[in-house]
Design a protein that fits this description.
Layout: H1 3-12, H2 29-40, H3 49-64, H4 72-76, H5 92-95
Length: 98
């Protein structure tokens, strides 16, 4: 769950939602050959190219979304006291298409 999703769920009460993404990707020939060689090797632990690509995306996103990539001011922020009435947020879920 992303930071934005956590904020929506925790502070505003919008229920967690799931995104399913199907996509087509052009993989350059040299990279496709490397992928095919790896997938056909006995060292490959994943059952499909799709599983391999999903794992590669997960690892890349984990790296770029890590706390080390956020500035100190954001990481040190403790929030603020904003008094909001839930009624003020009515329609938020509808506006976001959730």
């Amino acid at each position: 769950m992303t930071i934005i999703q956590k904020i929506l769920v925790y502070y505003i009460g919008i229920p967690e939602y799931h995104v399913i993404m199907n996509t087509s990707v052009h993989i350059p020939d040299d990279l496709a050959r490397r992928l095919e060689n790896h997938m056909s090797s006995p060292n490959c632990e994943l059952a499909s190219r799709n599983a391999f690509i999903v794992e590669a995306i997960r690892q890349l996103l984990d790296e770029v979304e890590s706390e080390g990539n956020w500035c100190e001011e954001i990481m040190a922020w403790q929030g603020c006291d904003i008094e909001l009435q839930r009624e003020e947020l009515t329609g938020f879920e509808r506006d976001l298409g959730l």
